[in-house]
Write a structure and sequence with these properties.
The protein is an all-alpha fold. The protein is 75% helix and 0% strand. The chain has one domain.
């Protein structure tokens, strides 16, 4: 799923979320690099997490952190829908991508 199909999937799976959370997650999703849906969701989640942990993020960090959580959850949901047998590997990959290099 790429482009409009990915956008439609995102919209359908966030329809019941609170407006502020859906809007903020949507901002990160819209800014994510083009690619397949899994990559866009992962990229958006990393961007949201980076925004939440930025120095002097203030109260806005709470919404960014919730958006990161929602985007990671959506990435895992997508993985479960597409290849349920590989959900564990998808989760491990997301965790590695979110872990800062040491």
């Amino acid at each position: 799923m790429i482009g409009a199909a990915g956008d439609a999937w995102f919209a359908a799976h966030t329809a019941g979320a609170p407006n502020a959370l859906r809007g903020r997650a949507g901002e990160f999703f819209a800014q994510a690099a083009a690619g397949d849906l899994a990559s866009r969701l992962a990229h958006a989640a990393r961007a949201a997490l980076a925004a939440a942990t930025r120095d002097n993020a203030g109260r806005a960090a709470a919404l960014d952190l919730l958006a990161a959580d929602a985007l990671i959850t959506l990435a895992l949901l997508h993985a479960a829908e597409v290849e349920p047998a590989h959900l564990g590997a998808a989760a491990a990959g997301l965790r590695l991508q979110a872990t800062p290099a040491q």
